[in-house]
Structures are given as C-alpha cells and as structure tokens.
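User: structure tokens for this one?
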Amino acid sequence: MDRNLWDPGTRFYHHVTRDGRTEVTDREQIGFIPWYFRMAPPSAAAAWAQLTDPMGFAAPFGPTTVERRSPWFVHDALWAAAGGRGRAGRTPRARR
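Assistant:
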C-alpha cells in the first residue's frame, strides 16, 4: 500500500487509478482512510498535520474534502453557485 499510494513529496496518501495513474495530486480526505483500517505505519503520521493547517483541511465548520491550497477547493462551489449551468457570474447575464 505504501509503495503505491504514499507520496513522500506531499507526505500523504493519494488515490490511484487501476492503471496506476494519479489523477488528482492534491491532498483529499480519502488519504486518511489507511488509518481507519490501521494500515498506515507510524512514519506516515505527518499527514495528520494537514487537519490543522489553515491551507490544508482546517476550516471553520469542520475539515474540507480537499486541501484549501488546491484549485479544486472552490471548483464545485463555483459550479453550484452558477446553478450547475455554467460559470459563476456569467449565468445571470445569459438569462436576462
């Protein structure tokens, strides 16, 4: 598991596709799952520092699903703000 999912550069577990590609290189909450199954070694404990990092997962109302420094952090929020029909800020003009 560590050989395939642990990234020593980010010091975090990342999900990998079946063909071995890492689609998203940003830290996501799914990276904490190895601890749920008690599969992570003690040397991987550095990943937990991201829970209290303001640019990591720390947020006023609980942890975020992706680290706040990621461009994906606001991606879905902008899409939802546009009603799922386009870019935020452009949809109201198109409806007028």
